[in-house]
Amino acid sequence: MVEVVVAAVQSVPSKFVVAVQHNARITRFALPLTPQPKYSHLPAEVQRAASLLLSVGADKWITDVVTIDDPIVFSQLSHTEFASKVIGRKIQNVGRYGKYLYIELDGDGPMPVLHFGMTGLFQIKGENPTYYRKKPKNASVEWPPKFMKFVLHLTAEDSKLVTEVAFLDARRLGRVRLCASPLDEPPISTLGFDPILSMPALDEFMPLVRKRLCPIKALLLDQSFSAGVGNWVADEILYNARIHPEQRCNTLTQDQIVSLRTQMIYVCETAVAVNADSEQFPIHWLFKHRWGKKKEESDIMTLPNGKPATIKWITVGGRTSAYVVEMQLLPSVGDTRQVSKLFRFSGHPYRHKLDWGTGIEHHFKEGKFVQ
């Protein structure tokens, strides 16, 4: 069954958008190639995606959109609504904050906000897709590519040349949203600082860390603390800072916090500088030993001084964590889990309660626990 939907386009009153439902999954929206009038108006992998889209899409019109009906990725809107809101508009800029990418379009409509999950990426038609790790065995050169969620057809003004850009997500952990003001509303507005874009000064950074009671690895992964730091990035930061992933935040020394901040900047900026190409990461990074080797090889590494070292794998904050035994020592400070004080207060046996998932301490006040 073929369903035809006709909708008017504000920028071209005499023209129409025709949306044809070819089958149960794919919808195509097409516009004439006539230029529309102008309006008056890192994590490293996401930064690379933003740079890629900006390089091929800046000042180009979205003249065609193909979408796949995926209610998981398009979780807060339908795939047809996404297409209808972006078609006929010009890409003015592509930005990133934390793990989110946002596309600034002309006009008064909402802007696309994308979360890439673990496997999201952009692919340009006619070019090989790029991966920050080894190319998957099931990577395909077909078009539209496998696992695509939408394809944008981009056309420059006074040109009939079309550039096709596909957003892929094999594991469906990414999300596609529309926001009126991406930086001022959720999900981006709920995030903490971005290590590249908005790293706090040391005098602000230090109390942010010391007031938390959770393991430092868990804090780094908390997006409300630092936006964009993923699992391997957190391990790399802690390795370079010589901090054990299980060390509690409130036990870190001033020197450790200074080193932590320095290495957050270093690791994130280095990864972005090489466009998230893992082959260009520094040879001494722990990343080089996380993947691509046999298990017996991945548990050992050679330090810059030539001495051997042992890599151990533990679970911290619900995530697998790698650390180097000889370089990242856990201070002996007694039982690090005994951080909450237990005593009678207003008839309640606990005055403090710790949320181990977030590391936030809750205090008993007026008959209930509050932050």
TrEMBL record:
Keyword annotations of the record: DNA damage, DNA repair, DNA-binding, Glycosidase, Hydrolase, Lyase, Multifunctional enzyme
Checking PROSITE patterns in the record gives: FPG_CAT
In its UniProt entry, what is this protein called? Formamidopyrimidine-DNA glycosylase catalytic domain-containing protein
- Read off the InterPro entries from this record: FPG_cat (IPR012319), FPG_N (IPR035937), H2TH_FPG (IPR015886), Ribosomal_uS13-like_H2TH (IPR010979)
The organism that produces this protein has a lineage beginning with:
Eukaryota, Fungi, Dikarya, Basidiomycota, Agaricomycotina
Q: Please give the catalytic activity noted in the UniProt record.
A: Hydrolysis of DNA containing ring-opened 7-methylguanine residues, releasing 2,6-diamino-4-hydroxy-5-(N-methyl)formamidopyrimidine
SMART domains per the record?
A: Fapy_DNA_glyco, H2TH
Family designation: Belongs to the FPG family.
One of the record's GO molecular function terms: lyase activity
